[in-house]
């Protein structure tokens, strides 16, 4: 259990291999095995546990899952239970490798066991060759888009995703799994970092419209303009993985203070209300935050907006159901205690391990659909499945798409603001009179009484208090 609780402190989360999970080389004392007097690692877990604590050993006879799974096919198979060495090895592979999980604070045994089952099952993160090819294609598009922009507009500010291109396959995996589980609309709130890439490769915004933003053209219609990496969009498209239609909206974000996240949640809540989605099964908010440096991480967490909007969500007055939150940070620090307030599990994952990232994203979407609760994904920045020629072919194909879109963008003469509306609301208010005033629930006599009391001079007692205020 100590490994399940503290394993994320020593997990290998840094893609560069420079920093440890807690920015130091100290191992928590709870994870130093010699402190538990395990004198013979070859003995079975059951024998060691009975020796250390007879009471816990008696309770362990009813355990299921990881600690009660059959031993590996070897000479130890003839023994009763797993050897302690095998138990420790499996625990380290599960909780101390490229995935670090904070979940043991959740006050629900069912939810904790749900997470354990999806992490501790041997080989559960393995992907099929087709799934790996899909990840390759998505990573290629993500990296190819940034490379093309850098080549064509090297001096333009664009806030790219270099170093964490896995964010695109991660977001698309969440969308795929959510669509499979019945979600029809996803509203995304995100900062400027990676926004252009998300618009291009997640929402599939036409590339020529994106490239036109770099040309500095005049607007052809009225509207409120902004820099290209603040713009939003709305699109309805077919998800090719699930063959289901999905509506994607990226909310415009003119602020750098994470205020877009509650806006995205409010937009989702409105859709849930007007579409009769009382359980939140068809509409889902997806908020992504960027924490590039330690200073940014601390200052962003101190912002009132980052602490208040997750906390008010599960209250009775705020009926928004479940948000998937993705946090991108360069240096991992355990400051995600805001998520603990709402009992949201936190998955720290090394962005250089695509299989682990995809597995965590699938778990996040399933968690939201199963328990209708928040979940946090913390992204820290050659197997013979495909040949080198296949990789080169995928890169050249996407580069050709970008070149064709660039040539089309050069022929544009104006920018159209209508192409960047993030809330067209098509079909949203059908059958409703836009001029109808809904009843407020307050009669005229009450309003008159409030008006008179509000505009009347204070009583004599109030005047005395006012005069003696100093």
TrEMBL record:
<keyword id="KW-0809">Transit peptide</keyword>
<dbReference type="GO" id="GO:0030976">
    <property type="term" value="F:thiamine pyrophosphate binding"/>
</dbReference>
<dbReference type="GO" id="GO:0005739">
    <property type="term" value="C:mitochondrion"/>
</dbReference>
<feature type="domain" description="Dehydrogenase E1 component">
    <location>
        <begin position="139"/>
        <end position="268"/>
    </location>
</feature>
<keyword id="KW-0786">Thiamine pyrophosphate</keyword>
<dbReference type="GO" id="GO:0006099">
    <property type="term" value="P:tricarboxylic acid cycle"/>
</dbReference>
<dbReference type="GO" id="GO:0004591">
    <property type="term" value="F:oxoglutarate dehydrogenase (succinyl-transferring) activity"/>
</dbReference>
<keyword id="KW-0560">Oxidoreductase</keyword>
<protein>
    <recommendedName>
        <fullName>Dehydrogenase E1 component domain-containing protein</fullName>
    </recommendedName>
</protein>
<dbReference type="Pfam" id="PF00676">
    <property type="entry name" value="E1_dh"/>
</dbReference>
<feature type="domain" description="Dehydrogenase E1 component">
    <location>
        <begin position="337"/>
        <end position="379"/>
    </location>
</feature>
<comment type="similarity">
    <text>Belongs to the alpha-ketoglutarate dehydrogenase family.</text>
</comment>
<dbReference type="InterPro" id="IPR029061">
    <property type="entry name" value="THDP-binding"/>
</dbReference>
<dbReference type="InterPro" id="IPR001017">
    <property type="entry name" value="DH_E1"/>
</dbReference>
<dbReference type="GO" id="GO:0045252">
    <property type="term" value="C:oxoglutarate dehydrogenase complex"/>
</dbReference>
<dbReference type="InterPro" id="IPR011603">
    <property type="entry name" value="2oxoglutarate_DH_E1"/>
</dbReference>
């Amino acid at each position: 259990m100590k490994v399940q609780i503290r394993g994320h402190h020593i997990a290998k989360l840094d893609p560069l291999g420079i920093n440890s999970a807690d920015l130091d080389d100290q191992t928590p004392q709870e994870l130093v095995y010699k402190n538990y007097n395990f004198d013979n690692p070859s003995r079975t877990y059951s024998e060691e546990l009975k020796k250390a604590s007879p009471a816990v050993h008696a309770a362990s006879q009813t355990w299921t899952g990881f600690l009660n799974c059959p031993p590996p096919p070897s000479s130890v198979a003839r023994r009763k239970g797993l050897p302690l060495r095998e138990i420790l090895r499996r625990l380290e592979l599960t909780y101390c490798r490229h995935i670090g999980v904070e979940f043991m604070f959740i006050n629900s045994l069912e939810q904790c066991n749900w997470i354990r089952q999806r992490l501790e099952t041997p080989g559960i993160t393995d992907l099929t060759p087709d799934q790996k090819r899909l990840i390759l294609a998505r990573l290629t598009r993500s990296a190819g888009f940034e490379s093309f922009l850098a080549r064509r507009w090297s001096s333009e500010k664009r806030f790219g995703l270099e170093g964490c291109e896995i964010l695109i396959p991660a977001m698309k995996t969440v969308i795929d799994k959510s669509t499979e589980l019945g979600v029809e609309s996803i509203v995304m709130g995100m900062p400027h970092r990676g926004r252009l890439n998300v618009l291009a490769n997640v929402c599939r915004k036409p590339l020529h419209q994106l490239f036109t933003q770099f040309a500095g053209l005049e607007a052809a219609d009225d509207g409120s303009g902004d820099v290209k990496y603040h713009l939003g969009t709305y699109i309805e498209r077919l998800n090719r993985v699930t063959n289901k239609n999905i509506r994607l909206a990226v909310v415009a974000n003119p602020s750098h203070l994470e205020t877009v996240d509650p806006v995205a949640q409010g937009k989702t809540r409105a859709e849930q209300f007007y579409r009769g989605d009382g359980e939140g099964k068809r509409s889902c908010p997806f908020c992504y935050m960027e924490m590039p440096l330690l200073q940014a991480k601390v200052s962003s967490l101190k912002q009132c907006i980052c602490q208040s909007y997750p906390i008010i969500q599960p209250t009775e007055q705020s009926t928004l159901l479940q948000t998937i939150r993705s946090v991108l940070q360069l240096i991992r620090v355990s400051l995600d205690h805001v998520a603990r307030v709402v009992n949201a599990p936190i998955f720290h994952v090394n962005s250089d391990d695509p299989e682990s990232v995809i597995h965590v994203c699938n778990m996040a979407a399933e968690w939201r659909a199963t328990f209708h609760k928040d979940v946090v994904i913390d992204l820290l920045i050659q197997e013979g499945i495909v040949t080198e020629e296949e990789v080169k072919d995928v890169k050249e194909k996407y580069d050709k798409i970008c070149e064709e879109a660039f040539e089309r963008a050069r022929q544009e003469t104006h920018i159209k603001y209508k192409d960047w509306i993030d809330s067209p609301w098509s079909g949203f208010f059908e059958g409703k009179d836009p001029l109808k005033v809904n009843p407020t629930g307050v009669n005229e006599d009450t309003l008159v009484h409030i008006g008179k009391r509000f505009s009347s001079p204070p009583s004599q007692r109030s005047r005395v208090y006012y005069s003696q205020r100093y």
